Amino acid sequence: MSAGVVRLEVVTDSAKPTLMVVDGHSLAYRAFFALPVENFTTKDNQHTNAIYGFLSMLVNLIKAEQPTHLAIAFDTSRHSFRTDEYPEYKATRSETPSEFRGQIPLLQDCLAAMSIPVLTKEGIEADDILATLAAQGSAQGFDVLVVSGDRDTIQLVNDQVTLLYPNVQGVSQLKRYDPVAVQERYGVRPEQYPDIAALVGETSDNLPGVPKVGEKTAVKWLTQFGTLDELLERSGEIKGVVGGNLRDHIEDVRRNRKLNRLLQDVELPLGPTDLETRPIDAQAVRDIFARLEFRTLLPRVFEAVGEDAPEEEHVATVALPDVAELAAEGLATWLKAATGDVAVEVTTAGGLPQRVGLAHGDDLVELSWSPQVQAALADWLASDAPKIFHDAKSQVKALHTAGMRVGGLAYDTNLAGWLLRPSYPDKTLADLVDRYLGEKLPEADPTQLVPETEGASPAQLAWFTARVATSLRTDVPESVDRVLREIELPTLITLADMELAGVAVSHEILSGFSQELGERAGRIAEESFAIIEREVNLGSPKQLQEVLFEQLELPKTRKTKTGYSTDAAVLADLQESHPHPFLDLLLQHREATKLRQIIESLDTAIRADHRIHTTYVQTGSQTGRLSSTDPNLQNIPVRTEESRRIRSAFQVGERYETLLTADYSQIEMRIMAHLSGDEGLIEAFNSGEDLHRFVGARVFGVEPEEVSSAMRTKVKAMSYGLVYGLSAFGLSKQLRIEQSEAKQLMMEYFARFGAVRDYLRASVLAAKEVGYTETIFGRRRPFPDLVSPNRVLRENAERAALNAPIQGSAADIMKIALFRIHSDLLDEGLASRVLLQIHDELVVEVAPGEWDATERIVRDRMGGAAELSVPLDVQVGRGGDWNEAAH
DNA sequence: CAAAACACGTA
DNA sequence: CGTACGTGTTTTGG
């Protein structure tokens, strides 16, 4: 016996062997619904929830029941002798999701590795195989355990045969049915159960029964008449409506009974004695579990068969290559010899480089930062020599700060990991090492002052990064790899410079405004306390609920998890139906304190250079957008006149002349026009007419100049809502109109712009097929939930999938424009620089005398970032502060 | 003390 | 029952 093979030995107390036969299909299907798919998806998007759930249950069963003989039966297809007989059989069942079907072959691979026989037969259902084996087994003196989620198997139960049937939820709990338990639960002997089922019918199999007859009536009749035949014979004796129903449906009952009888004489290649449990192939199990990313299941499998888990590869003992400490002199030679990819890890301190680790294959070197090292490194770093990083941006920033440019950025494992799985937060290199190498990155225990375990050194981190990159490169599809190389990596360099530049913000303006708002909030609070004659914390939804719904006895609003909502929309509704001075004051208080809070957080973020340096998280969204943190500069208020005073505090910096803002107008609608090819919408953008006026004219059948502002508001909401998968319900709510009117509006809209609806439908359908959406440039976003049996999950996924290519393409376009602008400004030797990106807007700081050149670059690059069937319209503004520049 | 819930700002 | 984000406050739960 080879070292990796373990005997599956079974010890039972009784001399009688135990045969366990399992309906693989029905139990895996239950597991599929019971386990959330998001927790069971591998890195290449293979769903494993059904496999995991089934194996988990099986392992528990083997452990508990200790069968000496074991087999799993599967259906081959929907088609069977029953569908031949009665084509409507199971016809109402919705198609099995492809995500489930795809798991069956893999599950069978697992079973093969575990040396468990899998039985199937063309035209025969799994339950017939179970029935046959159960009959043969009990005849041959086995104790038989039938495991199935199909109620028809109840008929198999007798003194030798016990059924294990899953409880309503999931597969973790199995209920044991022996003849006594069946009698208790159903009121009849097991062999009579099919008679009951024939009378009652089986909705899930599309077998209608006798109307108005449920379990209770069926049991009563059978007890009364003894057998089904007798009952049907003497159906005339049954009185009333049900008696008539029975007589009218006798043929249905006979058919049902015929179909639900399980075959006990199927010809099978293996009989019970052939199913003796055999040694499992430890290596094969390990391999397939690794592929399915099952970690906890492996030891459980071995435990269940009474063996210790075989030695795991001790990841911690994977030998790390030695690291050579280099001095500046040795570096040039080393770099010259290192052809091809070199992985780099720069540790930083105080925003400057500290140590540098380099990995070229297993050749690892490290250096401490010094002017000599910098001099020896600079040319290579700026050159096209390919370099691989994990999360390059922070390292690039430190290098830029030290006065070095980074060229040849060939790969970033952080970005690649995100592009492959944008919804999974593989934040750190350690996460990726675990996921893609199956190893553990040595990390120092941060809780220990003097760590017992040494963390990986910079060169070793670079070594891991290079190996993760190799693995990722085999996983990342070509189109996604292009997004990485042609969009994300150039964007990374640009973002590094934007973050370093920061934006000048006036503390004076902010603190003055903050004080003003603070005083106002105080006054409002006082006033509102006077009205309700007590003091509450206006920031506490819980206390507000007391005041609003108990003290003031206002009508209860939208429910939340913990009570009733007090959000602004709800308060505005309340104010309309039940005007109360407290409501108005509360809204004003919210507004003032919210603004003040934003101002305060901005103020504390101003650094010594009088500028705010946000951090753009390039992997921060699932669609391809950037996000901004510490502080978030992408949600600075703009909607009200007063809130725009905050934007006035964002000012042109010293030695610069003015701010330039540039934004895409209606970029998402333009992308919709392009993707859908809708001629009306394309014409709208080419006509030069105001978009919503044009659309309004078409929808309402009037001349553009006759479009009223109410009409314009409606089509505008409709147009924007489209991009988000808005429903008639949502539209009616937003516009405060009747649902019927909203429905009508949507009808009219699609009557004129039908290609838009066609595109949106086709796009979601295509995503359902392939499992992901794709932007114009090839960025992908997986959507496993599109085939979820859970309606809420599925519909959420549908809306997100509808939006993803549109929002994502817009993000791609903006990124392309952004790095090209950045690169043009540098190439032309201009000092002007991009400071902020707010999804469809850029803020640029323009140096004296550079306005014309900068504006030209910005307009050209934004307008020319993509060739669509409609023009990309760019609005440019100029001013000394952000608010002024926006006009 | 950390996490959840709520509310609200932007595109 | 409208997509994508981040942040602050209060409340909750261990």
Automatic annotation (TrEMBL):
One GO MF term, please? 5'-3' exonuclease activity
Output the Gene3D superfamilies linked to this UniProt entry.
Answer: 3.30.70.370, 5' to 3' exonuclease, C-terminal subdomain, 5'-nuclease, Ribonuclease H-like superfamily/Ribonuclease H, Taq DNA Polymerase, Chain T, domain 4
Which enzyme class?
A: transferase
Q: Which residues form the DNA-directed DNA polymerase family A palm domain?
A: 643-850
BP term (GO), one: double-strand break repair
Transmembrane ranges?
none
Keywords associated with the record: DNA damage, DNA repair, DNA replication, DNA-binding, DNA-directed DNA polymerase, Exonuclease, Hydrolase, Nuclease, Nucleotidyltransferase, Transferase
A Pfam family annotated for this chain is 5_3_exonuc
Known catalytic reactions: DNA(n) + a 2'-deoxyribonucleoside 5'-triphosphate = DNA(n+1) + diphosphate
Nucleotidyltransferase among keywords: yes
Instruction: State if Nucleotidyltransferase is listed as a keyword.
Output: yes
Which InterPro entries does the UniProt record give? 5-3_exonucl_a-hlix_arch_N (IPR020046), 5-3_exonuclease (IPR002421), 5-3_exonuclease_C_sf (IPR036279), DNA-dir_DNA_pol_A_CS (IPR019760), DNA-dir_DNA_pol_A_palm_dom (IPR001098), DNA/RNA_pol_sf (IPR043502), DNA_polI_H3TH (IPR020045), DNA_polymerase_1 (IPR018320)
Q: Where is the 5'-3' exonuclease domain?
A: 15-278
Q: What is its EC number?
A: 2.7.7.7
What does the record give as the function of this protein? In addition to polymerase activity, this DNA polymerase exhibits 5'-3' exonuclease activity.
Protein family membership: Belongs to the DNA polymerase type-A family.
Q: What is this protein called?
A: DNA polymerase I
Gene source species: Microbacterium azadirachtae
Gene name, Swiss-Prot/TrEMBL: polA_2
